[in-house]
Write a structure and sequence with these properties.
This protein is of the alpha/beta class. The protein contains 12 helices and 17 strands. A hairpin with a 5-residue loop joins strand 1 and strand 2. Helix 10 crosses helix 11. It is globular. The model has no long low-confidence stretch (mean pLDDT 97).
């Protein structure tokens, strides 16, 4: 197999190196001008190199990207957004392969090479959204890898038949099933968690539960999720998405929940939205509770915001949590890349031998400079091939 060598780049702002890639994998990383081997050579021009970004919480089936502007509407509550989306999505052709392709293209253009996407599964759309996303992913020929969470956006227990659809999705290859506010949406947290954990046990998949409820109600549901995880032996396979309540609790209760999450291997996905309480990230980091960053929806019927740039989400996380030091700013970028490996079932995701060859080049002095400026992606390599050059897609 022919090798491709990316020469003279600075991983994480370090000394210049040459990166030899074989197929989709990094074969070696050596000081610049020392790597041997035949094959093509790409001049990195001394640019900063980062691993491809990992979007740990997306909704690529929902976006109207590529269509004329859609004005925001509906009642600004979780239930209001659900109802508005259900009323309007068919008229916009959502979900469809074309809309999913458009948003995945923006992800790639900004350097995201792996995605964990929630895809709506409900009585109106069935499994059609999953089929649309898979078709979109296939059109990129492996440039972007997408794991699918079968997501019951309209509720579970209040919509008889949805559990069966989730089970079918898991049987058909979804890597996880989702849940949504077991208390405030379904108003029966025990029954929802019974059903979801039952599917996860039976099908050998993970769980990823959206939890918007705040304060004590949210904390109660986090405790239920942790308890179920421990009792079912699904340690390391359960994620809480959003989980706003954790940031709102007193420090002593935060600490006890962090320790319990660490014991159960429960991870956290956040989109770092403005005006929410900061997460106790230091305690989570120190106890080994994984945190992943995501874009959530991008230009969809829930919100007109988003451009697919995960580096901007990392900056939002840094601002929300008051990060200032070089170490802290680098940590925010790590959350968008190396530290998110587990969210897409990778053992390692970095610019090291043996890792998938996902590399992003930017013109920046160091990692911190790249975070605060979010410069154009000069080159994106995904699976060992160039997929973006000078900010433009080549796939």
């Amino acid at each position: 197999m022919a090798h491709v060598t990316l020469t003279n780049v600075r991983p994480w702002g370090g000394a210049p190196v040459d990166i030899v890639m074989s197929g989709a994998e990094i074969l070696s990383v050596a000081p610049a001008e020392t790597a041997a081997g035949d094959g093509d050579h790409l001049d990195g021009g001394g640019l900063l190199a980062l691993p491809g970004f990992i979007n740990a919480h997306a909704h690529v089936d929902k976006s109207w990207w590529g269509q004329p502007w859609v004005s925001y509407g509906g009642e600004a509550t979780t239930q209001g957004r659900i109802s508005h989306e259900r009323a309007e999505r068919d008229g916009l052709g959502i979900p469809s392969p074309s809309s999913a392709t458009a948003v995945l293209g923006e992800f790639l253009r900004h350097g995201t090479t792996a995605v964990r996407s929630h895809v709506d599964v409900d009585l109106g759309v069935g499994l059609r959204g999953i089929e649309a996303v898979r078709e979109a992913v296939a059109s990129f020929g492996g440039a972007v890898e997408v794991e699918i969470v079968a997501f019951p956006q309209d509720g579970v227990m209040r919509r008889p038949g949805v559990l069966e659809l989730l089970d079918q999705a898991a049987a058909a290859g979804a890597t996880a099933v989702g849940g949504l506010d077991p208390a405030s949406i379904d108003r029966d947290p025990v029954a929802q968690l019974d059903g979801l954990f039952g599917i996860a046990e039976r099908r050998g998949v993970g769980l990823d539960i959206h939890l918007h409820d705040g304060g004590d109600l949210g904390a109660f549901q986090i405790e239920l999720i942790i308890d179920r995880t421990l009792r079912t032996g699904l340690n390391g396979k359960v994620t809480v998405s959003h989980g706003f309540a954790l940031g709102e609790l007193p420090a002593n209760r935060q600490q006890s929940l962090i320790e319990a999450c660490a014991e159960a291997g429960v991870s956290w996905a956040t989109v770092a939205p403005v005006r929410t309480a900061p997460l106790p990230w230091r305690g989570m980091r120190d106890h080994g509770v994984p945190i992943g960053l995501g874009t959530d929806g991008v230009r969809d019927l829930w919100s007109p915001y988003g451009d697919g740039d995960l580096l901007r989400v990392a900056l939002d996380f840094a601002r929300l949590h008051g990060l200032r030091t070089d170490e802290e700013l680098a940590y925010a970028v790590e959350l968008a890349s190396t530290r998110a490996a587990g969210f897409v079932h990778r053992e390692v995701h970095d610019i090291v031998a043996g890792a998938r060859a996902d590399i992003v080049l930017v013109d920046a002095e160091n990692v911190q400079d790249a975070l605060v400026r979010s410069p154009r992606r000069h080159l994106v390599v995904a699976g060992g091939r160039v997929v973006v050059q000078d900010g433009e897609l080549r796939v």
